[in-house]
Amino acid sequence: MAIEVRIPTILRTYTDGQKAVEGTGATVGELFADLESRHAGIKDRLVDGGELRRFVNVYLNDEDVRFLDGISTQLSDGDSVTILPAVAGGSLPVGMR
User: Fold this and answer.
1) Distance CA 63, CA 90 (A)
2) Which Pfam family, any one of them, does this sequence belong to (predicted)?
3) 15-50 in b/e burial notation, b at 16+ Cβ within 10 A?
4) Percent of the chain at pLDDT above 70?
5) Distance between CA atoms of 55 and 13, rounded to whole angstroms?
6) End-to-end Cα distance, the chain
7) Tens-place pLDDT, residues 49-78
8) Fewer CB atoms near the end CB (10 Å): N or C, the chain?
């Protein structure tokens, strides 16, 4: 079962600069384990204590897996998984400082 995984720039050091890689697994968790077997260190950046890290967003075919079954979300052949780091910060508008 082939799953396309889109990798954000910050994690491409683990994938030799590749923007997308293929993986396999029946669930998101199994997919991450498969990625780890070929891209050592990437899983620790995505999962902590068996759950997604707080500042990592994972989308299955444009659906946030947190609103599905988290890392237990089921995958199917041909699915697309996108990993996005959460973005925070910025500044207040001038009138609100």
Assistant:
1) 26
2) ThiS
3) beeeeebebebebbbbbbbbbbeebeebbebbbeee
4) 89
5) 18
6) 52
7) 889 998 999 999 999 999 999 999 999 999
8) C
3 state SS of 82: strand
Residue 76 has φ and ψ, to the nearest 5°, of -130, 155
**Residue in the structure block whose two tokens are 């997604």:** 52
Structure tokens at 58: 């994972």
What domains can you pick out in the chain, each with its CATH number?
3-87 (3.10.20.30)
More confident site: 86 or 55 = 55
Phi–psi pair at 18, nearest 5 degrees: -70, 135
For 2-66, what is the HEC assignment? CEEEECCHHHCCCCCCCCEEEECCCEHHHHHHHHHHHCCCHHHHHEECCEECCCEEEEECCEEHH
